[in-house]
Design goal:
This protein is an alpha+beta fold. The chain has one domain. The chain contains five helices and eight strands. The strands form two sheets. A six-stranded antiparallel sheet has the order 1-2-3-4-6-5. Strands 7-8 form a two-stranded antiparallel sheet. The radius of gyration is 21 Å and the shape is globular. The chain starts with a helix and ends with a strand.
């Protein structure tokens, strides 16, 4: 009888151990206010956050938002950056972290954004201003890469991101 209970216990433990340990967590973040030259504002950029975990290790993290046309944060764009973004119906900002490119890479995320017709845009002035914001440091984002994407017309459909061996997620 004891051997039977022991065998059942071992079988139960090993079957649980083989379960998929990949999971995702969602949350929010906020950048409050900003300054550009002599202009100061109190409005916030509200972000959504999705993190992909394998057991307790965060493999990939994306913190994202759209930057509306009327947003004060657009003053961080240089004249040249604004010129490159003027034909964008939607400007999408993401801050991305990858633990290792061997599992989930930044290029995999960018490829899926391209599939949704988002074009990657380089905006060093905006990026520098964002990284110098106190909330950027408070949110511990120093290992995150700042990415901007332009879509010519506004997307009404959600963006779906699918990483290997994880459920597809809607941003």
């Amino acid at each position: 009888m004891n051997k039977f209970i022991l065998l059942v216990s071992i079988a139960a433990l090993t079957s649980c151990a083989s379960l998929n340990k990949n999971m995702t967590k969602v949350g929010t973040a906020k950048i409050r206010g900003g300054i550009y030259k002599n202009t100061k504002w109190d409005s916030s950029l509200e972000f959504k956050r999705v993190s992909w975990f394998q057991e307790l290790t965060m493999l990939y993290d994306v913190i994202y938002t759209e930057i509306p046309e009327e947003s004060s944060f657009r003053t961080w764009f240089s004249r040249d950056e604004r010129r490159r973004l003027k034909d964008c119906g939607q400007v999408f900002l993401s801050m991305n972290y990858s633990y290792t490119s061997e599992k989930i890479s930044h290029s995999l995320f960018k490829a899926q954004m391209r599939d949704h017709r988002y074009e990657h845009v380089v905006a060093p002035d905006f990026t520098r201003s964002l990284k110098m914001h106190p909330d950027f440091q408070q949110l511990s984002l120093s290992l995150h890469k700042v990415n901007l994407y332009c879509r010519k017309n506004k997307l009404e459909d959600p963006i779906f991101i699918n990483f290997p061996n994880f459920e597809e997620l809607k941003l």
